[in-house]
Amino acid sequence: MTLQEVLEAIKSYGSVSTKNTLMKHGCQEPIYGAKVADLKVLQKKIKGDQELALALYDSGVYDAMYLAGLVADGNKMTEKQLEHWVKNAKSSAINEYTVPWVTSEHPQAWKLALKWIDSKDEMIACSGWNLLSGMVSLKPDAELDLPKLKELIKRVQTEIHAAPNRVRYTMNGFVIGVGTYVDALNKEAIAAAKKIGIVSVYMGDTACKVPAAEEYINASRSRPGGAKKKKTLKC
Q1: Is the dihedral of CA 128, 20, 57, 70 positive or negative?
Q2: Structural domain of residue 141, as residue ranges?
Q3: How far from 209 is each of 25, 35, 212, CA to CA, in Å?
Q4: In this predicted structure, what is the pLDDT of residue 12?
């Protein structure tokens, strides 16, 4: 399929109600309003087409950018391309999910995550924190820099309440991720969650709530079989 054919297909799936819901959750125009289930139908048709995935992202259409994240192979992208993606992710679902999902597949994901969390751009910083959260859920503990993660937990504990709005949300998610998936740092994450307490984040005109970190961690680890590492972040 060509770029134009995919864009037309996405547009045919769109609905006003889905578009309105996406915009309430921070997604920016242009948006066609296609559901993820419909995008996954297209994903199967264009699977493996890396160049098309890159073109879809550069279209600027929210739905196409989301689809690009499902199709693109982060391992085949350059750091320059990933930097381009993070700087052009202007919808919360793209910068907090699509970009981290794809970047997590790249050999330099850890380095990029640490760089992005220090960005003064709120959306880039969010990408960085969610990338870290994703990596701890993917990588075996033996491959993680545990001392650095411990240091980052303390940083979140100190900075979270003064951080920008969505950064607070993704920092909280980072504590949850470490506490859930990194056995060696579970106690540290729980202790930090208790000291952090309630995290206030403006969620717009939605019913979404900020997860209580300690409660979420304990619930995740109490499931049958415990909290197992993931094979991919994409969904």
Answers
A1: positive
A2: 107-235
A3: 12, 22, 9
A4: 98
pLDDT tens-digit map of 33-64: 999 999 999 999 999 999 999 999 999 999 99
Report whether pLDDT(182) > 90: yes
Helices (H) and strands (E) in the chain, counts: 14, 0
Distance of CA 32 to the CA centre of its chain: 21
pLDDT tens digits along 119-158: 999 999 999 999 999 999 999 999 999 999 999 999 999 9
Q: What pLDDT shows up at residue 158?
A: 98
What's the pLDDT at 27?
Answer: 94
- In-domain check, residue 153: yes
pTM of structure: 0.97
d(CA 156, CA 149): 10
Residue 199 C-beta-side C-alpha neighbours within 13 Å = 34
Does residue 86 fall inside a structural domain?
A: no
Q: Do the beta carbons of residue 198 and residue 212 sit within 8 Å?
A: yes
Q: How buried is 79 (Cβ within 10 angstroms: 0-12 exposed, 13-18 middle, 19+ buried)?
A: middle
Q: Is residue 16 part of a domain?
A: no
Contacts of 76 (CB under 8 A, 6+ apart): 50
Domain count, the chain: 1
The two tokens of residue 202 are 């403006």
For residues 66 and 180, what is the distance between their CA atoms, to the nearest angstrom? Answer: 26
For residues 81 and 113, is the Cβ–Cβ distance under 8 A?
Answer: no
